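Problem 12. The chain below contains 249 residues. Write out its predicted structure in token notation.
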Amino acid sequence: MADPIAQFQIKKIATLGTIGGHEIAFTNSALYMLIAVAGISLLMIGATTKRQLVPGRMQSVAELTYEFVADMLKSSAGNEGMKFFPLVFSLFTFILFANMIGLIPGTFTVTSHIIITVMMAMIVFLTVLGYGIYRNGAKFLKLFVPSGIPIVILPLIVMIELMSFLSRPLSHSVRLFANMLAGHITLKVFAGFVTMLGGIGALGWLVAVLPLSLTVALTALEFLVAFLQAYVFTILTCIYINDAIHPGH
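Solution.
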């Protein structure tokens, strides 16, 4: 059976140069990130180049995506949150495209690497922290002081709220990374069973029907998970942005 972890290996495609004795390489991870960005650009630019009153398929998809993210942001952070729309829209479309591309056999899933998800989570965290302090000043600290808490347990609650806030990048990134990693490993394992049983002969192919059916079902489920993980990452981003705008509990 093929190693289910091998699909996550980062491979060098070309060397771009060296900085301080460290090699700077163009990898398969960078390649598929560029493919995701190219796909998003093709959809959005192609859909808006020749806008029509009665939209075609590409324009409809672009408009639905725009409205979906805009509604998500407005419902979570209000109209003021729309100033963060470029960030939220970019995160949603990048994660969605990267997840979907990774489901194509022989491709690479960039969101299955925690370094990628951590960087996106840190962008959100630093944006929320910076804007929260800029907009509210010392009032941003209200985020850590829930109203109506007895003074006796207030220090404990503040400590818990502070730890929860500081752990956001970890929980935000690990959720996406772990789901994509686990899903692809499971698919690879069941697909490996099909190949292994098929090599036995006619009887093996009969037995392989079960893991093949499970592989097909899991693939369909993974398409749903790919969308849901993009949605969950984005909706949490919207909630965190709302905390920066309205830090009071």
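Discussion. The chain has a mean pLDDT of 87. Students who got a different answer should revisit the alignment rule from Section 12.3.
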